[in-house]
TrEMBL record:
It is found in: Cell membrane. Residues 24-224 form the SHS2 domain. It comes from the Bacteria. Keywords: Cell cycle, Cell division, Cell membrane, Membrane. It is a peripheral membrane protein. Cell division protein that is involved in the assembly of the Z ring. May serve as a membrane anchor for the Z ring. This is Cell division protein FtsA. GO terms for biological process: FtsZ-dependent cytokinesis. PANTHER family: CELL DIVISION PROTEIN FTSA (PTHR32432:SF4), CELL DIVISION PROTEIN FTSA-RELATED (PTHR32432). It comes from Pacificibacter maritimus. InterPro entries: ATPase_NBD (IPR043129), Cell_div_FtsA (IPR020823), FtsA/MreB (IPR050696), SHS2_FtsA (IPR003494). The lineage of its organism: Bacteria, Pseudomonadati, Pseudomonadota, Alphaproteobacteria, Rhodobacterales. The keyword Cell membrane applies. Self-interacts. Interacts with FtsZ. The gene is ftsA.
Amino acid sequence: MTDLYAAQRAMRNMRNAALQRGVVAILDVGTSKIACLVLRFDGERFAGGDGVGALAGQSAFRVIGAATTRSRGVRFGEIDAMGETERAIRTAVQAAQKMAQTRVDHVIACFSGGTPRSYGLAGQVDLEGEAVSEQDVARVLAASDVPDYGAHREVIHAQPVNFALDHRSGLADPRGQIGNSLACDMHMLTVDAATIQNLLYCIKRCDLEVAGIASSAYMAGISALVEDEQELGAACVDLGGGASDVSIFMKKHMIFADSVRMGGDQVTADIAMGLQIPNATAERIKTFYGGVVATGMDDREMIEIGGDSGDWERDRRTVSRAELIGIIRPRVEEILEGVRDCLDAAGFEYLPSQQIVLTGGASQIPGLDGLAPKILGQQVRIGRPLRVQGLPQAATGAAFASAVGLCLFAANPQDEWWDFEIPADRYPARSLKRAVRWFKDNW
């Protein structure tokens, strides 16, 4: 725990160093594509955000380079073949650097997969002085009782979501306020340690320094949900190639994240298997003719499959669009049912707002906005990422939600556990505290 805390703090320092240099790269390592954006920070800072959610104001930035390449060696959002992924990352970063006409040393990366798990923590301390200081916030975070999340998992996000000072709850930032007792609710997200280590090692092999790492579910929510949705409560579903990430926001903070190990690639695989065609052809047919709602016209609309097997009859096969939809729809329904199970497990139905926003590359399947409300609930919309200054037109689609969210996160990260000077004696004392409690209960 202490090691990861030190590693995360080192990454934060690297991010600050990169911001002073003025250039940092954003890397979205996905199953179907690897996107790289180069950001230039012009040094202006303007106060933005309220509470511990926002660090010391936002940095104004501009996208000066962008590139995408087909992802290789990544399955279900996790690295499968190190060499292939390294080559793909190098290709994307070099193309973005060429467009930006500058060299980049630091990258902030995001990934899906890694079987994320969410935990809610609570801590309480008595205040030593009158007003709440930075040290008091650090002490209440350190007092949060961390669950035993397993040896092979690591904390990727640990954010204070809500503060309570004496009887007043719902405070965004208690610093400077007067009271006797400070309590805090935290959201902690853990992922499989091997997934993070593989990604960090892969980026290091590309001669790049990692200045930050984040979950795709969180990044997609930041960019696809509008401010009111983040405040009142909403779920963001990032339908990617290999995994579909689910995140729930409330009071502008992420309070839950999960992942379904299915996405657009499984739809492509179904088409390839059903029509006995190569994956590349199946992807093209899905993109041009795919859908989930069949009409009477679709029986008559014939799609030429084509091929280069050399068998003239086989290469001239046609299939109706209705048949294609018959292959696509069951898999899309299965993905949405998996998403619904995640939301049910999180207790989403108890939130005051029931808004669900679908984003990601697979959300562009025609007819999804009609099918999704039948499975997920009535308030469903298709979300596109926020507009960012300098972003090329090609990178404004729903497939780039995570990458755009990562730009916003790089410029204005939310305060996390490691942004405070946690008292050294409090940090590793978890096991001791647990042992003392066990001793009391069992003696």
